[in-house]
Specification:
Layout (H helix, E strand, L loop, with lengths): L2 H22 L11 H4 L11 H14 L8 E2 L8 H13 L6 H4 L1 H17 L6 E3 L4 H16 L3 H4 L5 E6 L5 H8 L7 E4 L9 H13 L3 E8 L11 H10 L3 E6 L23 E5 L11 E5 L2 H8 L29 H35 L4 E3 L7 E6 L4 H10 L4 E7 L2 E7 L7 H17 L1 H7 L1
Parallel strand pairs: 1-11, 3-4, 3-5, 5-6, 6-7
Antiparallel strand pairs: 2-8, 7-8, 9-10, 10-12, 11-12
């Protein structure tokens, strides 16, 4: 038997260990960061480790790692586990193709392009559209900004930025926008953060007012970032109204749908993206609402020429066969690139577009269950709104940061906290479509029970 065959047998044994551990202990026992290296042997040594000891340390690592697929993980904008997507990711690891040329990726290129083609069709982009798979939502936003910069001034690719540029995003948008401005030569000080309304949505009139001020002050506006699912409230900016302003001033419009752009698959929720077909670029993360393993990010562009102009570079040693349409390195940011498309394709192929719609709709249904529970119990205060899978609330006036930290430290549940308009609250994210209504109600049960059993501790800390 080959070494790989033996290791696959070990892998299956470890999978059983993990699944059993998840069932028995949905929240991993926390290891204090200061004690990590003395608790688990993570050292790298000159001598080989014998198989038995190697297996045991792998078990320790698996058991101690935070469990993101269980019914008590609500902390991040991802969660759960779609088995057909896991299958695709495992196959991608075994195949180990890089996605820069057809010569080394073959049909995997077609798989990626089919996902992009279908996605462009679903949001209303035309025949000139295309896209690629970046390394995450932050990179999608960065690529969009680079294309916006180059579209406004094509010479900057060769001569650098020679005039003051400015970009716009809401105060509730993703933190990557500030980083990306510094990377692109625009500068963090030239990011304009537009006010939001009481529900966390960008106010279009404020956007236009700021654009007028910047033009008058000698700046060149190049980029507007609209958000489809803000990180705290899960709010959707009014894309259609923003698009009208972007078109008026000839500014690139990017829709950052990393969190909730996958509503494109839902007939009942797609209206939240109204106007997206008017954008220049759009991104969504299948590792969030769709539930594929990390990472699986997609950026789409209305005109594929922009991708090629900003990211193509000739390399005779690499691009030796087939045309540009099949050599995906010509339109991606990086050269060597893992196959992130296969896991999305195996899920989509197996359940169909209707199955993806059910996955998305389930999350909103679970959010409704949570919101209704909070709204109908006097000990809770609700801070969020319908059409969001971020359910924000407080319980009995307890400091949310303190409560979330204690829940985590006592291995009860993993849930985060956030803030909006100077109000802090617990943020329950119902993005795990493998959960049920029972799981959501159980979350509140364990929270309430923990508070009751630890009233004195909470009183002392708060």
């Amino acid at each position: 038997m080959s070494e790989l065959s033996n290791d696959l047998i070990l892998f299956n044994e470890l999978v059983e260990v993990l699944l059993n551990e998840e069932a028995l202990n949905p929240v991993a026992k926390r290891i204090d960061a200061a004690a990590l290296y003395s608790t688990i042997d993570l050292s790298l040594n000159n001598s080989a480790m014998v198989d038995g000891a190697f297996k045991e340390v792998l078990k320790e690592v698996l058991i101690a790692t935070p469990k993101t697929a269980t019914s008590l993980f609500f902390n991040q904008l991802f969660g759960g586990r779609q088995s057909k997507a896991v299958l695709g990711d495992l196959l991608a690891v075994l195949l180990n193709n890089s996605m820069y040329t057809y010569k080394v990726a073959g049909p995997q290129v077609g798989i990626e392009q089919e996902i992009i083609r279908k996605s462009c069709e679903m949001i209303g982009y035309g025949s000139k559209s295309n896209g690629t798979f970046p390394t995450g939502g932050s990179m999608s936003n960065y690529m969009a900004l680079i294309m916006a910069r180059d579209a406004k001034d094509s010479d900057c690719r060769h001569s650098g930025v020679t005039k003051p540029l400015v970009m716009y995003t809401s105060k509730e948008s993703h933190y990557s926008n500030a980083k990306n401005a510094s990377f692109a030569g625009i500068g963090r000080k030239n990011v304009r953060y537009i006010d939001t309304d009481s529900r966390g949505k960008m106010i279009p009139s404020q956007l236009e007012t700021q654009i007028k001020i910047d033009i008058q002050d000698g700046f060149t506006p190049i980029f507007v970032n609209a958000t489809a699912g803000t990180t705290v409230l899960g709010a959707f900016d009014p894309i259609d109204e923003i698009a009208t302003i972007a078109e008026k001033y000839n500014i690139w419009l990017h829709v950052d749908g990393a969190y909730c752009g996958s509503v494109m698959f839902s007939k009942t929720k797609k209206h939240l993206l109204k106007g997206v077909e008017r954008s220049d670029s759009f991104s969504y993360n299948a590792h969030k609402m769709i539930g594929t393993p990390l990472t699986c990010s997609v950026i789409l562009v209305n005109d594929k020429k922009q991708l090629h102009d900003s990211f193509s570079n000739e390399a005779d040693y690499l691009y030796q066969t087939d045309g540009d349409d099949f050599n995906l390195g010509k339109t991606s940011f990086q050269c060597g690139r893992r196959n992130d498309a296969l896991k999305f394709w195996t899920l989509w192929k197996s359940v169909g577009t209707n199955g993806l719609e059910r996955i998305v709709n389930t999350q909103f249904e679970l959010a409704d269950v949570a919101r209704n529970y909070v709204a109908n119990h006097p000990d809770y205060t609700l801070y969020s709104f319908e059409d969001s899978i971020s359910v924000c609330f407080n319980y009995k006036g307890i400091n949310p940061k303190t409560l979330c930290t204690l829940l985590y430290e006592h291995q009860i549940t993993v849930v985060g906290f956030g803030a909006f308009n100077e109000e802090e609250f617990i943020r329950l994210v119902t993005i795990n479509a493998t959960n049920s209504s029972k799981d959501i109600l159980n979350f509140f049960k364990v929270l309430e029970q923990f508070v009751e059993e630890n009233a004195s501790v909470l009183e002392a800390v708060c």
